[in-house]
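Check out one such.
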Amino acid sequence: MDWRGRRGSRNIEDRRGARVGSIGGLGGAGVLAVLLIGWFLGVDVTPLLEEGGGSPEPREMTAEDQAAAEFVSVTLADTEEVWTQVFREQLGAEYQPPVLVLFSEATRSPCGGASGATGPFYCPLDRKAYLDTAFFATMERQLGASGDFAAAYVVAHEIGHHVQNELGILEEANTLRAGMSEADSNAVSVRIELQADCLSGIWARRAEQRFGSLEPGDVEEAMNAARQIGDDTLQRNAGQRPMPHTFTHGTSEQRVRWFERGYVSGDLADCDSFAARDL
């Protein structure tokens, strides 16, 4: 991905180096969420959940950290231009971009505590995406998802959730989930995540057309990342038998297919995972 020397976004909130309270201060639901995500990613989150740890030492920023932050800023700027264009052309509406919070080790959000164990996420309550760029190293070293466009896919996926929020889809889906059984709620979650994958595919297509920033192999890097973080693959890599009723993001095959669907089409209407009979 050709990103160096290009415009970065102003919608970055940099909390790296800031001290925050211990993750041990999370409520029971927050602790459970961290444990589950850590289990899926194969990350030992025990040190993050210890009580009485006080404020963790901020991670010292390295040249690699700074380059990663600049990369995220450029990628975010690209999403802003792409989605502004898509909203105007396909919806006749104005796109309101989110803020992306960079943090190191841990931070807080209205949706709960964030840490390196939770991975990147989007919080609809404050319309912000949260990312510790150290997650990119986790992707490469532990998940087998290397390459700068694999990292760009992660950013684009979280911004895809913001697009869903802008369209009212996320609130409606989460309201629906609140009255469901766990298995049914998980099934709706899969549709949310696959739609975000499709939206990230639209972004990739538009970025290629608008900026000429994609290089040979970039799309395959994104699809490989989608493949490596499929629920079935994560469960197998954790030594577990895949259990479809526990899936919350979709299988590897589904995630790749929905990303590719958005990339080939470029049309929001083709990303309606909620209307699809077969995922």
